[in-house]
Design brief:
Layout lengths: L1 H24 L13 E9 L2 E3 L2 E4 L4 E8 L4 E5 L4 E5 L4 E2 L4 E2 L4 E11 L1 E11 L1
Parallel strand pairs: 1-4, 3-10
Antiparallel strand pairs: 1-2, 4-7, 4-8, 5-6, 5-9, 9-10
């Protein structure tokens, strides 16, 4: 009886070691046609005179990263079509989360300043 238990134990150990070995060594094949999205960075300057650049063009599927810099006032920057809303304090740069441009079209972004008076500047994200 002990001999039978010992055999079962040895077999279980062999299976466990083989499973661990395969988990460490096996790499699934890469799927054809799947690539990392292209990433583009844009530095946007927010000021009383407007947003520079005020037009951004990207291709569909691009991972877009924005760097927002305020030159003069505190601003709320928004790109509603992609759910981006970020407060940028005067003299600072903010980096909202990147997003994948997954829809073709023109999307308005805007910066709104509160400096005694409220003023808004707009720009366009073009996805082709």
């Amino acid at each position: 009886m002990r001999s039978g238990l010992r055999t079962v134990f040895v077999l279980l150990m062999i299976v466990a070691l083989a499973t661990v070995f395969l988990a460490l060594v096996y790499r699934p094949p890469r799927q054809q046609g799947i690539t990392e999205p292209a990433r583009e960075y844009f530095d946007l300057t927010l000021s009383a005179s407007g947003i520079e650049p005020n037009v951004i063009s990207v291709r569909l599927g691009t991972l877009v990263s924005l760097n927002l810099t305020s030159l003069d006032y505190d601003y709320w920057f928004s790109l509603p079509g992609y759910g981006i809303s970020e407060r940028v304090f005067a003299g600072q740069t903010r980096h909202p989360p990147g997003f994948i441009a997954n829809r073709v079209g023109n999307f308005t972004f805007q910066s709104t300043a509160f400096s005694g008076a409220i003023f808004t500047n707009e720009g366009t994200l073009r996805v082709t």
